[in-house]
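Record type: monomer structure entry
Structure origin: computed from sequence
Chain ID: A
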Amino acid sequence: MGKRLPFALNASVLIALLAASSAPTPLYPVYQDRWGLSALTVTVVFSAYTLALLTALLTTGTLSDHLGRRPVLIGSLVLEAAATAALASADGAGALIAARVLQGLATGAATSAAGAALVDLDRPGRPGRSALTNSIAPAAGMAAGVLAATLLIRYAPGPAVTVYLILMLVFLLQAAAVALSPETARPHAGAWRSLRPRVAVSPPARRAFLVSGAGVVAVWALGGFYSSLGPSFVRLVAPDAPQAAGGMVFFTLSLSAAVTVWITRALSPLTATLLGSGAVPAAVALSLAGMHLVSLPAVFAAAILAGVAFGAVTQGSMRMVLTPVPRSDRSTTLAAYYVLSYLAMSLPAVGAGVLTQAYGLRTAAHLYAALVALLATAALLTLVLAGPSGGADPYREQDGVVPGVPRGDGVQEGAQQHVQRDVRGSGGEPVGEPADVVLDVPARLLHQPVGVQQ
């Protein structure tokens, strides 16, 4: 079969998973009209998925290393099909939340296995292919999911059912295809032990984690608002706009994030993070201007800027944090990044729902925008103060030395080996430098939610 078809299959799995994660976003107004859901309930539905996804990532993130990619993927895809069936048959908020929890668990397990399989299948001659695919596929999948659901709302009968039935069929077909594909990992003992969550920031990454943390929180919180309350915000600004406009605003953000990941891949980590953090205040200001001026084009322009911010900060901060980390500590540091990101995406969104219920969406939008802008401003100040003094990026390896990592006791030497040596796939083949592999992290996102989600 070769590697081309299995590679394409696993890439399609990532796209389908993230498409399913974002498909409910344009349907939230439908649910609100049908069941009388409040803004708070909508944000709880959204956050239930996000927190379930985080739980799955922390517990099953390395399970496919022990059981193999195929068993984990097949089980997760079948579970994902069951979740879409539950979403199609949901008849109220409780059923919707339960279905989203199931979907989050399945997505977390499947994205980890599919992303790892892409690295396994990478070609020695094209070591960055898996990293780039893992970076672009999630955002592209979210954009595709929102677009498909929006079009089905407009043109198909029973849109709240049709989109999920289509996705269920896709997942079942993918599960069958995975069952027929070759295993790419070498299963080994320790599956039960791997389910124990481990969250820690490796000492070489602590400075970068602190420096980039405010920017990470800002963009993920902004993504959470668009993903959960974006359609309601569009309805507030333009009550007479087509219902499809509510879903298209998150499509715009997702597409912009995917393009930004591609464009900023050659920038230094610090430059990318600064660029993204600087786009956040402009995005929220333009969004509020659209609300006051009753301008839907301004809202969509703000969504484009928000996507630029999300893509650039995610790209840059991940490289800042993981580049100096020894391979043995990468998974725990990555888990800490996930915890920060997904909590930043879900908890502020629930807070926005509470504020909307108490004071209205207009007031909630102002307060949320102020919080995100303050975080982004703090990120800019921190990044500038911690940045280069002589034109060199302190978070990029220079002259064989990994900045921010102390010399002596073998720490600097270990970090150098991490940055310089080839990463090996399960079959021992080189799959590229860690600086490239770092880019596969958004596949386990977000989502979102850049994984924003959702």
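Annotation 1: The chain has one domain: 4-183+196-406+409-452.
Annotation 2: Residues 392 and 398 are 8 Å apart (CA to CA).
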